[in-house]
Amino acid sequence: MKENYYNVIGVMSGTSLDGIDLAHIHLSKKEEQWEFSILEAETIPYNAAWLKQLKTAVNYSNDELEQLNENYTDLLANCILTFIQKNEIKNLDAVCSHGHTILHQPEKGITLQIGNLSKIATLINETVVCDFRIQDVALGGQGAPLVPIGDRLLFSEYYYCMNLGGFSNISFEANQKRIAFDISPVNTVLNFYANQLNLPYDDKGAIARKGQLNTALLEDLNQLDYYQLSFPKSLGVEFVNQIVLPLLESYPISIEDKMHTFTKHIAIQTKNALPVIEQKILITGGGAYNDFLIEAIQETLPKMTIVIPDNKILEYKEALIFALLGILRLLNENNCLSSVTGAKKDHSSGSIFYKIG
User: Fold this and answer.
1) What CA–CA distance (Å, rounded) separates 324 from 29?
2) What is the Cα–Cα distance from 217 to 213, expressed in whole angstroms?
3) Which residues are paired to 30 by β-bridges?
4) From the CB of residue 163, how many other CB atoms can be counted at a distance below 10 Å?
5) How many CA atoms lie within 13 A of 339 on its CB side?
6) Cis bond leading into 232, ω under 30°?
7) 154, 315, 319, 328: least buried by Cβ within 10 Å?
8) In Å, how far are 28, 34, 229, 297, 319 from 277, measured between CA atoms?
9) Contact (CB, 8 A) for 239 and 191
10) What is the rounded average pLDDT of the residues 225-250?
11) Burial letters for 37-46: b for 16+ Cβ neighbours within 10 Å, e otherwise?
């Protein structure tokens, strides 16, 4: 690596199952200030077979999970190689990959991100930094969220950074510590119902907008135990499958009404999560394209200045930050904050697989 300048690819696959995000990033550090530039970026959507596997893998046996991990690592390597060749990317310092979360039960000491097997470095012939969560869970942390260190180092001009993906998560400074946690499910639920209408997602929230608010359902959603917990805390698909969807399904109302009510629920939980409501908030992730959701959040937070950045940052902020986490790991600098995850200490997390030669 050149001193203070890094040429890297960040790779991310989120719980909303939009696909595999790849971003070619230039990172630099000048006078203790990190700067970035997102060059080429692309999302590779999952085909129907992969979507089915990733949606149901939480129920797989150990043997099935091992095979899935092997196959997904092959898929990831192929996507990364194609991206490198297509964009003629050379002299990389590292490929930094989150993998895809299948199991996340930190209270049981369990977290599994597939696609992080050591063979990935051999398959793409690049140094790979990956598997960022497992060490934090071993240190008693939630293993999530991991993005807040990037919010602090790359987006410090915003009081809050919020990502609206499969789940919403928030990050901010309080008492000279970075605080972050998952707020609520977002696209894991909204996409579930859009899929029932044979749509990949609810474009701009148009379906949810047509629905009616069900106040009883809204009250039940807002009373869920998770929202009463103090941070650090994080969510996995288990929460959606075992608690949220059964509650929604217990109401004999239309899909439009469920989506409308759940969107209002997301907005209310967003407001409840923020200690200061007259600041500037950066919103990224696929949910930022959901006009109805953004309007609902603005209605609950009328004094908040909402900033939605350009498309590259909006869509690839997490890939960008995993690129940064990987470089911090290679520098043996802390990339995981105990104030965020609840781990015993700040630490430098991630597996490093060096390319040969």
Assistant:
1) 11
2) 9
3) 33
4) 28
5) 15
6) yes
7) 154
8) 33, 28, 20, 11, 28
9) no
10) 94
11) ebebbbbbeb
pLDDT single digits (tens) 58-94: 999 999 999 999 999 999 999 999 999 999 999 999 9
Whole-angstrom distance, CA of residue 147 vs CA of residue 170: 9
Enter the pTM of the model.
Answer: 0.89
Q: Is-contact 145 169, C-beta < 8 A? A: yes
- Compute the distance between CA of residue 330 and CA of residue 352 in angstroms, rounded to an integer: 8
139: amino acid identity, one letter: L
Instruction: Please enumerate in sequence order all residues whose Cβ is within 8 A of that of 212, keeping only pairs 6 or more positions apart, or say none.
Output: 256, 257, 260
pLDDT digits (tens, 9 = 90+) for 135-173: 999 999 999 889 999 999 999 999 999 999 999 999 999
Which tokens go with 256? 């439009």
Residue 86: strand, helix, or coil: helix
Find the DSSP H helices in the chain.
48-56, 62-86, 119-124, 134-138, 148-154, 187-196, 206-210, 215-222, 237-239, 245-249, 255-273, 291-300, 311-330, 338-341
Evaluate whether 160 touches 281 at the Cβ level (below 8 Å): yes
